[in-house]
Amino acid sequence: MKKILLTTTILLAGLMAYAAEHPMDMMFKTWIGTSIKSAIKEWGDPSDIDYKRGQREYKWITTGTRFIPGTMFEERTMCERKLIVDVKGKIVYGTFTGNGCPFTKESVKRWNNPDFDYMQDMINSDNY
User: Fold this and answer.
1) Domain boundaries, position 36
2) What is the pLDDT of residues 74-113, one digit of tens each?
3) What percent of the chain stands above pLDDT 90?
4) Binning pLDDT at 50, 70 and 90, where does residue 69 land?
5) E-strand spans in 40-73?
6) What pLDDT is recorded for position 4?
7) Cβ–Cβ < 8 Å for 58, 41
8) Would the CA dihedral through 118, 119, 123, 127 be positive or negative?
9) Residues 29 and 20 sit within 8 Å (Cβ to Cβ)
10) Is 68 within the bounds of a domain?
């Protein structure tokens, strides 16, 4: 019985961790509905701009290296941030990919929208 309870607890903890929102996704939410000009002002010029189906995709690519723990080797890292913008120039979605993207709330702060109203977002959310 104890094994079943322990297994169930571990499984539930894993599912909760999987369902938790990634800090990068939370960062993108701070930009939804704002002008792409604001993001460019904060992040600098994009690495690339693609035009698809009436929308524009702005990409920022960050590269670097990091040491592999327990070895003397290092690996190359890359993080691609993409903002999807409608025909009016408003950000509608954000996504990321790569092994060099931040994974903590603290490390992703540099990319948050500085004009985002966190208090108003908390009031409007279901979590309040």
Assistant:
1) 22-124
2) 999 999 999 999 999 999 999 999 999 887 888 888 888 8
3) 49
4) confident
5) 48-52, 55-67
6) 52
7) no
8) positive
9) no
10) yes
Domain assignment present for 9? no
The two tokens of residue 74 are 């290092």
Q: How far apart are CA 102 and CA 35, in angstroms?
A: 24
In a domain, residue 73? The reply is yes
Closest by Cα among 77, 85, 35 to 56: 85
- Over 80: is that where the pLDDT of 3 sits? no
User: Tokens representing 100?
Assistant: 């060099």
Instruction: Specify the number of domains making up the chain.
Output: 1
Q: List, in sequence order, the alpha helices (H) in the chain.
A: 2-19, 23-29, 36-43, 105-108, 118-124
Is residue 40 included in any domain, yes or no? yes
